[in-house]
Amino acid sequence: MNISQNNTSHILSNKVAGLLANAIIKVQVGCSKWLNQKFNRYSTQGKKRLLISIGLIASIFLIAGSFSSFYPIPRLSQNYTSAHIGMPSELPKPTISVLQLTDSLTKTK
After folding, report:
1. How confident is the model at residue 82 (pLDDT cuts 50, 70, 90)?
2. Could you tell me the keywords of this UniProt record (predicted)?
3. 76 DSSP assignment
4. pLDDT confidence of 59, banded at 50, 70, 90?
5. Do 64 and 57 form a contact (C-beta atoms < 8 A)?
6. Quick one: how far is CA 28 from the chain centroid?
7. How far apart are CA 26 and CA 6, in angstroms?
8. CA-to-CA distance for 98 and 95, rounded, in angstroms?
9. Which residues of 85-96 are buried (b: 16+ CB within 10 A; e: fewer)?
C-alpha cells in the first residue's frame, strides 16, 4: 500500500517494514528455541504424556465451551430471520397516503 507518491517515503516505508519483519522473526525464533529446549528435556515417554495431556486439556475446554456460555458474543434470538441477498429485510412503508392511479399520459385535459 503506497500512501504517497514520494520515492523517499516509499524507500523509508520499505526499510521500516523490513525492520519490523526482522524483529518479529527474531522473537519467533527465540520462542521456538526456548520451547524446543524445554521439550527436549523430557524423555520419549514424558513427551508422549505431555502431548496427550495438552490434547486432553484442549478437548475438555472445547467440549465445555460448547455446553456453557464461555463466549462473550450473545447468541441470536429465535425470532431472527435473515434477509436474502437482494431482498429487503422488511417491507417498505408507503410514503404517499393517496396513490395516483393514472399517469400524466392517460389524464384527460
Report:
1. low
2. Membrane, Transmembrane, Transmembrane helix
3. P
4. very high
5. no
6. 22
7. 31
8. 9
9. eeeeeeeeeeee
Work out the pLDDT band at 55, boundaries 50, 70, 90: very high
Q: Is the pTM of this model over 0.85?
A: no
Residue holding cell 434477509?
83
Q: Cell numbers 524445554 label which residue?
A: 38
> Residue 48: its pLDDT value, please?
92
The whole-angstrom separation of Cα 108 and Cα 6 is 67
CB 64 within 8 A of CB 71: no
How many Å is the maximal CA-CA distance in the chain?
Answer: 101
For position 7, what pLDDT does the model report? 72
